[in-house]
Amino acid sequence: MPIPSRVKLVEVGPRDGLQNEKQAVPAAVKIELVHRLQAAGLTEIEVTSFVSPKWVPQMADAAEVMAGITRRPGVRYSVLTPNLKGFEAALLTKPDEIVVFASASEAFSQKNINCSIAESIERFAPVVDAARAAGIYVRGAMSCTVGCPYEGDIAPERVSYLAGRMRGIGVQHVGVADTIGVGTPLKVQRAMEATLKHFNINDVSGHFHDTYGQALANTLICLQMGVWQFDASVAGLGGCPYAKGATGNVASEDVVYLLHGMGIETGIDLDKLIDAGQFISDFLGRSTQSRAGKALFNKRST
Ligand code: HMG
Ligand code: MG
How many angstroms is it from 51 CA to the middle of ligand 1? Predict the structure, then answer.
């Protein structure tokens, strides 16, 4: 499989990046972050989640954030919706895409969305139907496709099972997530191959947390398989509140540096992306988790 010449990055910083932040992040800061990301050339932005504010307080301002964004033509804005209640609230804010999120691990499903994998599929089915009837694209996120914080290693058969169920209810694209960042390339490859039994190469993406520093290697092996869509989070922000110990997603700046260095187009202006990362890191009062972002930022002042 030839390495793709162009890659689409889905920026998940405003959602995955901020959902686990303990300090309050005002809606205005989230909106400004989205504006900076789109100014940097990101055309796919996962903005927020319509989830229970009791479960994830940081996303309680989902509607306000969606309403505050000055939308840029050509940019697609997605939101997470765990159930019909979330979908109905999301619909009012006119997302281009919704994300239903399930887990390959039974224990993580219970911790994250308070139901079994089978129940989650039953719950998503009417959400998918309603979204597609409204002309909204449906993406599925599959958590714990290589490892689970509660169950340990996850076999590829379980990923294949989940991908099949997602496909069966009409999900149009699935992201293969290493939620806790334990995966290494061959394990990730097997999870991706299991997914490709049910989805076309053009309908899958990688979503790698970087806890063990493997996310770029995992990205590379997927590129070698022909995967051309990846989620990433500016400044390496992120983590799921129900995946203890997991750190952020792979930093968008690092992925862009890797891709541009390999001659792969992204349409993203790395300098402006670094500025967006600096903006949110300054607000949070800590330095960026992006290695390339840090190196290139420091180089500016020399
Ligand atoms: P539940 O408690 O079982 O829900 O939670 P319920 O249906 O029994 O309702 C309980 C209460 O929640 C009710 O309110 C509902 O109205 C309310 P009350 O009567 O008590 O006042 N409620 C809602 N409120 C707002 N929006 C909603 C909603 N639904 C119910 N949509 C539920 C089930 C799914 C809601 C809950 O478990 C939840 O919100 N979980 C979200 C967890 C989450 O957001 N996790 C992070 C995102 S996933 C992720 O990060 C992984 C990913 O990045 C990929 C990877 O890395 O693996 C995507
Ligand atoms: Mg995630």
Answer: 4
Residues in contact with ligand 1 (CB, 6 Å cut-off): 16, 19, 49-52, 55-56, 80, 82-83, 85-86, 101, 112-114, 141, 143, 177, 179, 207, 209, 240, 242
For the CA of 113, the nearest ligand: 1
Q: Please choose from 51, 78, 111, 127 the residue to mutate so as to test ligand 1's pocket, defined by most ligand atoms within 8 A of CB.
A: 51
In a domain, 1, yes or no: no
Percent of the chain beyond pLDDT 70?
100
Q: Which pLDDT value is given to residue 14? A: 98
Split into its structural domains, the chain has a count of: 1
Task: Considering the candidates 144, 148, 222, 240, report the single residue annotated as catalytic.
Answer: 240
pLDDT in tens, 246-276: 889 999 999 999 999 999 999 999 999 999 9
Determine the average pLDDT of the residues in 197-203: 98
In angstroms, the first-to-last Cα distance of the chain is 41
The domain of 221 spans 8-300
Alpha-carbon distance 170 to 167, whole Å?
5
pLDDT in tens, 156-189: 999 999 999 999 999 999 999 999 999 999 999 9
Considering only CA atoms, which residue is closest to atom 53 of ligand 1? 16
Q: Is 51 domain-assigned?
A: yes
- CATH number of the domain encompassing residue 257: 3.20.20.70
In-domain check, residue 2? no
Closest listed residue to residue 231, CA positions, set 149, 141, 109: 141
3 state SS of 178: strand
Closest-CA residue, ligand 1 atom 11, reads 52
Residue 78: beta bridge partners?
Answer: 46, 97
Q: Is residue 41 part of a domain?
A: yes
Number of residues that make up the chain? 302
| Those residues with Cβ within 8 angstroms of residue 68's Cβ, 6 or more apart along the chain or in another chain | 27, 28, 31
Q: What is the pTM of this model?
A: 0.98
The two tokens of residue 54 are 């009791």
